[in-house]
Amino acid sequence: MLPGMATKPRIVIVGAGNFGTALAVSLRGAGYAIEAVIARRRGASLRKARTLARQVGAAASVGLPAKVQAKVIWFCVPDGQIALAARDLASKIEWDGKIALHSSGALASDELHALRRRGAAVASAHPMMTFVRASRPSLAGVPFAVEGDAAAVRAARRIVNDLAGYSCAIRKKDKAAYHAWGAFASPLFTALVATGEQVAILAGVKRREARRRIIPILLQTLANYASYGADGAFSGPIVRGDVDTVRRHLRVLGKVPPAREVYAALARAALRYLPAKRRGELTNALRG
Fold it and tell me: InterPro entries this protein is in (predicted)?
């Protein structure tokens, strides 16, 4: 038994996808006992659950067993399956006194209403982090947006603190906007660099080489943003008011229309939100 396990609530993980895997491993490392990893069906879902269960010293099963000692049941399933999973499991065990959490960024704790009606305290606790199959990021330093019933919020905040993350309160009505903000930081950012790769190919640079060459400027841009904010990190032809260069960019990007659309949209955003010279001329160039 890891230090502190005796005083920390046992946890059941529902779903062994990218986030569920990272969460379970982090919880185990923080001294939490993972009682079970639950799959909603047999086949690939159950195989993933069994693989994760072996890593964290837990049992794996399809659906909740009849007796669950765990205090916390954490739903790590896609957004569209949270309410359905909650309804499916509502009659399987006694929920009075349990804590039920989910980690959707866009949906509120009310997705677990079926369990609240059975006596559970429910909350959502969403980490502002990206989870993909090939990596397992640490949750240390990661902000979790938390809302829900008071008892569940307290439990979630304690767990997040033990993971070395930190909790931020969020209102239910703000969750969609909050999640859209996160989309700009990772999935849409990835779409941006993927679009940039098409422009690199236009410039005669192969995709693999383009990724190698672009990393230093990406890392420095993020470092500048972290230190100086958006205004201080902004460079290039728009901040200088270099209209001719912007026109050259637009002309050559006509050969890759989707990239031209992205460039023009981001340039218009830059003129709205960031320092720039010769705004009127740049606006006209983008319309041309």
Answer: 6-PGluconate_DH-like_C_sf (IPR008927), DUF2520 (IPR018931), NAD(P)-bd_dom_sf (IPR036291), OxRdtase/DH_put_Rossmann_dom (IPR019665), TM1727-like_C_sf (IPR037108)
